[in-house]
Specification:
This protein has 191 residues and is mostly helical. It has one domain (8-171). 59% of the residues lie in helices and 2% in strands. It is built from four helices and two strands; from the N terminus they run αββααα. It has helices spanning 17-43, 75-103, 111-134, 139-171, and strands spanning 68-69, 72-73. The chain has a two-stranded antiparallel sheet. Strand 1 (68-69) and strand 2 form a beta hairpin. The protein is elongated, with a radius of gyration of 21 Å. The structure holds protoporphyrin IX containing FE (HEM). Protoporphyrin IX containing FE (HEM) binds next to helix 1, helix 2, helix 3 and helix 4. Protoporphyrin IX containing FE is lined by residues 31, 34-35, 38-39, 41-42, 47, 53, 80, 83-84, 87, 90, 125-126, 129-130, 132-133, 137, 142, 145-146, 149, 152.
């Protein structure tokens, strides 16, 4: 059996390639949920339930008097607020991928392109989200926001696929001589 020293990319830590992989998988589900939430906000007509941006009624957390509308619980406010909150979480997750990707760029060359795409997407999508509110749901901006959302999801899927196949190749490299897959042992990990 072929023994090899564990390469840096298997080191544990917040910005390791292993953390990158885990975050990539979770991001696929989170962005999907965020898009569903956006669709829900639009379909119940709650796009302006928080009439300002980046705050909501001038506050980080809307005060209790906005929670109810004529005695009815204001679902629209919470759908829109949750959409923003989840978008904030997605921004942090992508920021993590950007840093981890950059630190591991030598082990996973495609990561550079993906990292820059992520960075651009999240800036543009957040600005478009804000403009959606500030321009009172202008159809062109809402459409651009939807288009960028679809693009963001595509990139998260491609990224997850790339990191998944990269890990598979590292764990089971194809032998140049026999063409068969060999299992490598990395002593400091449980892979
Ligand atoms: C990665 C970040 C984001 C993604 C992937 C995303 C995705 C989406 C999607 C798919 C929709 C449904 C659009 C449609 O059905 O036409 C939507 C709606 C919406 N999003 Fe986002 N969004 C993000 C961030 C934000 C941010 C930061 C804001 C800030 C205010 C925001 C505000 C809105 C609003 C107001 C709507 C409803 C538009 C309407 O009622 O017509 N989004 N979003």
């Amino acid at each position: 059996m072929q023994e090899s020293v564990a390469p840096n990319l298997f080191e544990q830590g917040l910005f390791s390639l292993k953390a990158y992989r885990l975050n990539s998988y979770i991001l696929v589900g989170t962005v999907y949920g965020l898009m569903l939430l956006g669709g829900y906000v639009k379909s119940i007509g709650a796009g302006l339930a928080c009439p300002d941006w980046p705050l909501c009624y001038g506050q980080i957390f809307p005060s209790q008097k906005y929670w109810f509308n004529n005695g009815e619980f204001n679902w629209g406010l919470w759908a829109e607020y949750t959409h923003r909150l989840v978008a904030g979480i997605v921004i942090l997750m992508i920021f993590h991928l950007f840093i981890a990707g950059w630190l591991n760029r030598e082990h996973f060359p495609q990561i550079r392109t993906v990292a820059w795409l992520f960075f651009a997407i999240i800036i543009i999508q957040s600005i478009l989200g804000g403009l959606t509110v500030l321009h009172v749901l202008h159809p062109l901006i809402v459409t651009a926001h939807l288009g960028m959302g679809i693009f963001s999801y595509t990139v998260t899927l491609i990224n997850a696929f790339l990191i998944h196949t990269t890990f598979k190749q590292i764990k089971h490299p194809v032998s140049e001589e026999t063409g068969s897959k060999e299992k490598q042992v990395y002593p400091s990990t449980n892979f």
